[in-house]
Amino acid sequence: MTTVLLVEDEEKLRENIAELLQLYGHVVEQATNGKEALYRLKQLQPDLIICDVMMPQMDGFTFLHTIKQNLSFRHIPVILLTAKVAREDRIAGLKQGAIDYLTKPFLKEELLLKVKNHVQLKTDVTAIICQKEGEKAILTVQFVKRVTELLEAHYSQKDYQLCTLTDGLGMSRSAVQRNLKRYFSKNFLELLKEFRLRKSADYLINTDLSLERIAGQCGFGSQSYFSSSFKTAFACSPLRYRTENQFLRQINET
């Protein structure tokens, strides 16, 4: 159901328009001037605004300019009602962000068609945005999952490089680097090192392998580099980490 905010100071005209729109299934909220309309906007999120130009306290142009500066309201389409027919007045409204004009007096069919068309356009645009966001979310999950799979398969290789990852993803180097930053907040080397350290922590808890073997299994060039990197990441030495987390191994084995 479509909600229309109708802003018009002439009571009889406002009531006639509201009655017509309600007859065709629209929910109509009313305001008598731009200032009142701004207050009403804080209470609802209309699909469309129909606004007179000449009003007391705050005219239609000022109201339009105000909402187009607000990120919460600027997306709402606005149709201006005006008795002015001068070209410069119509252009002024369009420059402020109005999507259409209705010149008084107007035919009810013209009003209904413009409302229908602009509401449908807003609905279509919203649907496209939602679809794109959904597709983007799917691509994000796929990218993160595939990167994780490739790291799982190759983290033990000491010479594993970004070019090998890009080949596995079937993406350009720049695209991979950009997406790693976007979805992992790390570059390739930072992500690979973090992955290797997490794996080494698992080895320390769940196996009796020596530090040298763990370093080799996790792709570190030397035991000393592994130990210093581990201490920086976990704030303790690998051996201390193993000792303090032995209870986790017992839990995993039960």
UniProtKB/TrEMBL annotation:
Residues 3-119 form the Response regulatory domain. The modification 4-aspartylphosphate is found at residue 52. It holds the Pfam family Response_reg. GO terms for molecular function: DNA-binding transcription factor activity; phosphorelay response regulator activity; transcription cis-regulatory region binding. GO terms for cellular component: cytosol; protein-DNA complex. It comes from the Bacteria. Transmembrane segments: none annotated. Keywords: DNA-binding, Phosphoprotein, Transcription, Transcription regulation, Two-component regulatory system. Residues 145-244 form the HTH araC/xylS-type domain. This is DNA-binding response regulator. It comes from Larkinella knui.
